[in-house]
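1st attempt posting a full record on here, be nice pls
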Amino acid sequence: MTQELFLENHGELIQNTLVKHNQVRAEEALLKGLKDKLQTNLVNAGLDRIVTDGFKILIVGETRNTGINLKAVEKAEPELYVRLLNDYLKVTQRKSYVKVEYLS
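the predicted structure (as tokens):
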């Protein structure tokens, strides 16, 4: 099937997907602002959690992840990089998905 034929047959689905995508992004931005304000107010009140029968609000503290920069190892120590990949290769499979974005 050609792209043109696909667009002709599924144009409404594509348009609905793009509209919903933008709505979700706008809602996510609004939610982030509300959560930031809530966190500020909780900190100012000296609280780090609120628990009721209906909901739980918790401030999760900052975390730091550390790891090895394999690109730097590959560049500086190519033989070590190959040996590490051979000995400790980890493959993570991810499910396919549709990515939607506006280009304008």
